[in-house]
């Protein structure tokens, strides 16, 4: 079966079997050029244990695994948790620091989704978030 891994907006197709352990899946991901050795993967909001199998987590053909926000902290990233809902219904979580502008958050969300920043709308309380005008 083929499952997908997204990193910085790039999709990687990974061939696995139901009995493939998560640690072996991580090796396959590393062979695609993702070099972080100490990371955890997520599927549908659950962090995946290295010793469990694809079957254990119910991962099916066409499903996606990714770096979850809490596990990205192992890569040295910290800040505030931001949950982004896409029109497709999928949800992405990312960490932003307090100094990040709305523009910077939009650009990061766009990179993660593989779309143009102009396509990203950030909303809070039903209203679109607006950034401060950039200093000239």
Explain what this protein looks like in three dimensions.
The protein contains three helices and nine strands, in the order E-E-H-E-E-E-H-E-E-H-E-E. It is elongated, with a radius of gyration of 16 Å. Mean pLDDT is 76; it is low at 70-78. The protein folds into two domains: 2-68, Roll (Ubiquitin-like (UB roll)); 78-126, Ubiquitin-like (UB roll), CATH 3.10.20. The N and C termini lie far apart (52 Å). It has helices at 22-30, 69-72, 102-113, and strands at residues 2-7, 10-15, 41-43, 46-48, 64-65, 80-85, 91-96, 123-124, 127-128. It is of the alpha+beta class. Strand 8 and strand 9 form a beta hairpin. It has a three-stranded mixed sheet with strand order 2-1-5, covered by helices on one side. It has a two-stranded antiparallel sheet with strand order 3-4. It has a two-stranded antiparallel ribbon with strand order 6-7. The chain is 18% helix and 26% strand.
List the helices and strands and how they pair.
Layout (H helix, E strand, L loop, with lengths): L1 E6 L2 E6 L6 H9 L10 E3 L2 E3 L15 E2 L3 H4 L7 E6 L5 E6 L5 H12 L9 E2 L2 E2 L8
Parallel strand pairs: 1-5
Antiparallel strand pairs: 1-2, 3-4, 6-7, 8-9
- How much of the sequence lies in strands comes to 25-35%
Rg on CA atoms, Å: 16 Å
Number of helices: 3
Overall, the morphology is: elongated
What is the distance, rounded to the nearest whole angstrom, between the alpha carbons of the first and last residues?
A: 52 Å
Please trace the helix and strand order, writing H or E for each element.
EEHEEEHEEHEE
Secondary-structure class: alpha+beta
Determine the CATH topology of the largest domain: Ubiquitin-like (UB roll)
The CATH class of the largest domain is identified as Alpha Beta
Strands, total number = 9
Mean pLDDT reading? 76
């Amino acid at each position: 079966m083929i499952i997908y891994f997204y990193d910085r907006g790039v999709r990687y197709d990974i061939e696995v079997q139901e009995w493939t352990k998560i640690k072996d899946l991580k090796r396959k991901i590393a062979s695609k050029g993702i070099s972080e050795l100490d990371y955890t993967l997520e599927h549908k909001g659950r962090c995946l244990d290295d010793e469990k199998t694809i079957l254990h987590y119910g991962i099916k053909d066409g499903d996606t695994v990714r770096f979850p926000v809490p596990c990205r902290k192992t890569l040295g990233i910290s800040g505030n948790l931001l949950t982004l809902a896409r029109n497709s219904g999928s949800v992405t979580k990312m960490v932003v620091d307090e100094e990040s502008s709305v523009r910077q958050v939009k650009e990061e969300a766009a990179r993660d989704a593989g779309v143009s920043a102009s396509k990203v709308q950030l909303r809070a309380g039903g209203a679109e978030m607006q950034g401060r005008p950039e200093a000239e």
